[in-house]
Design a protein that fits this description.
By secondary structure, the protein is an alpha/beta fold. It has helices spanning about 15-25, 40-50, 60-65, 80-85, 100-115, 130-140, 155-165, 175-190, 200-220, 315-330, 335-355; strands spanning about 5-10, 30-35, 55, 70, 90-95, 120, 145-155, 225-235, 240-245, 250-260, 265-270, 275-280, 290-300, 300-310. Helices cover about 40% and strands about 25% of the residues. The protein is globular, with a radius of gyration of 20 Å. The protein binds nicotinamide-adenine-dinucleotide.
Length: about 350
């Protein structure tokens, strides 16, 4: 079978660490085109991976390059690039978040269905073997009393600087970079509506940048919450969000923020009558660190805690394998654009709940 020919847009950190190396080595893909606003990155990554077709403009790449699919790893313009790709009949794997607002996400999801192409949001945690194992473990729980999402992200740059020597850009015209940032900023504000205070805009950006991972794994575990009962975004310094979500018979606490450490502190937990189960995620930047599942139960009067490492398989690689399967079989991705939309809607609801009256 011919490999899926891929054009990668955005050749920064996550593309260089995860997507391009895996696309390069997996038999089902061939990276035939790359694109970035930075000429230095296009030349550097293009040379490193012997990519024949190189572009500084995503539209041009989508219109001209010999590609079947676009992998969107840009820092900005996800929806614009996805819509352009869909209009040209290309399949799309788009890094999280799908985009800046529910309205844009709906546009992408609707266009994808109309064109009959695969559009998948790159939520690698949903394809993590530890998460799949957790889903099985929680399925039989009786009387859940609390769920908890806790995600305090490390300082990404410190971790990346330790682990990798990446190619860097830095040669983008400041006008272009500023225009992209301003476009995103306008869209965040439009989604929030009115004249949102700075901490609320900050909280929404954190939600889309980090919390979106947790929303997809939460929904992949327990479905959609019925309502947001409480939410708060801190006003001083970098935003920290706490919230309480209503799941009917139980509540879920939601704690999202950053630290300046090199420790990734991300855990999903559930407390039920007969078990306490937690799933601890590793740094997303370091390959093959397993996600750890801990289960505590009462066994014949004794408290027994087991730790399970389902697999050392990298979740980013599983994600690409799922995308490949969807493109070649016509299967709808587990994390399609409608899923991306629902995550953004719920995150927006949390942040709006935190907004001062
Ligand atoms: N799944 C994960 O765990 C994970 C981890 C990190 C980043 N990400 C996501 O991946 C995306 C990229 O993040 P990053 O950390 O690699 O960012 P980065 O800034 O290191 O790289 C982004 C690159 O995109 C380029 N770019 C921006 N707009 C562009 C456009 N319109 N056309 C072409 N190129 C464009 C920039 O020049 C830059 O080189 C973000 O959406 C981020 O949320 C996901």
């Amino acid at each position: 079978m011919q490999p899926i020919r891929v054009g990668v847009v955005g050749l920064g950190q996550i593309a260089q660490i995860m997507h391009i190396p895996y696309l390069h080595t997996m038999a089902g893909f061939a990276v035939t085109a790359v694109c970035d606003l930075s000429p230095r990155l296009v030349a550097g990554v293009g040379d490193l991976y012997h990519v024949p077709h190189r572009y500084l403009d995503a539209r041009e790449m989508i219109a001209r390059a010999p590609i079947d699919a676009v992998v969107v790893c840009s820092s900005f313009d996800h929806a614009d690039i996805a819509l352009e790709a869909i209009a040209h009949g290309k399949h799309v794997l788009v890094e999280k978040p799908l985009c800046e607002s529910p309205a844009l996400a709906r546009e992408v999801a609707t266009a994808a269905d109309a064109a009959g192409v695969v559009v998948m949001v790159a939520y690698m945690k949903r394809y993590d073997p530890g998460f799949v194992r957790w889903q099985r473990e929680i399925a039989g729980l009786r009387e859940i009393r609390l769920a908890r999402v806790h995600d305090f992200c490390h300082n990404n740059q410190r971790v990346i600087d330790d682990a990798y020597d990446l190619l860097t850009g830095g040669d983008i015209s400041s006008d272009v970079a500023e225009a992209a940032r301003a476009r995103a900023e306008t869209r965040y504000r439009e989604a929030l509506g009115g004249d949102p205070p700075p901490h609320i805009v900050g909280g929404y950006k954190l939600a889309l940048g980090l919390g979106v991972h947790d929303m997809t794994i939460l929904r992949g575990s327990f479905g959609d919450p019925r309502a947001v009962l409480f939410a708060d975004v801190s006003r001083d310094g970098p935003p920290t969000t706490v919230a309480v979500l209503d799941y009917g018979s139980f509540r879920c606490t939601w704690e999202i923020g950053n630290t300046d450490t090199k420790h990734m502190d991300e855990e999903l937990g559930v407390w039920a009558r007969d078990a306490i189960i937690t799933l601890r995620f590793p740094s997303p930047y370091i390959k093959n660190i397993p996600t750890e599942l801990k289960v505590t139960r009462l066994v014949e009067g004794e408290s027994v805690t087991t730790t399970t490492i389902a697999s050392y398989r990298e979740s980013f690689q599983n994600e690409l394998a799922h995308f490949h399967e969807c493109v070649t079989s016509g299967r709808r991705p587990l994390t399609d654009a409608w899923e991306g939309l629902r995550d953004i809607e719920l995150l927006l609801e949390i942040i709006q709940r935190a907004r001062p009256a």
